[in-house]
Amino acid sequence: EKTGLWWKFDDEQVSELGTHPFIEGSSSTPKSESNGASSWEHESEVFSSIDAYMLIYSLRSSKLKSREGRRENPIDITKGDVDLPPHLDEWMSYLNATFL
User: Each residue of 83-95: pLDDT tens digit?
Assistant: First the structure.
């Protein structure tokens, strides 16, 4: 189910961030110009993190029940079932090759 919501996953807590967390989190303030008029300026368009990693999850299909009654996801990334943009696919292949 696509909802457009972003989520923050910490080690012990999951928090909903909304549909546009980076836009909602940024602030705009009026900037006075020399002629006295005001214009709007974004304070920051750069987002950074001090965390060691960031995971992004995207549900590709609903979970199916196996023969044993367990719910499992039918996607197998080792079989190439995941569609990545070409630049990410090349990058992941390069990184994976360094560990083989």
Answer: 777 888 888 888 8
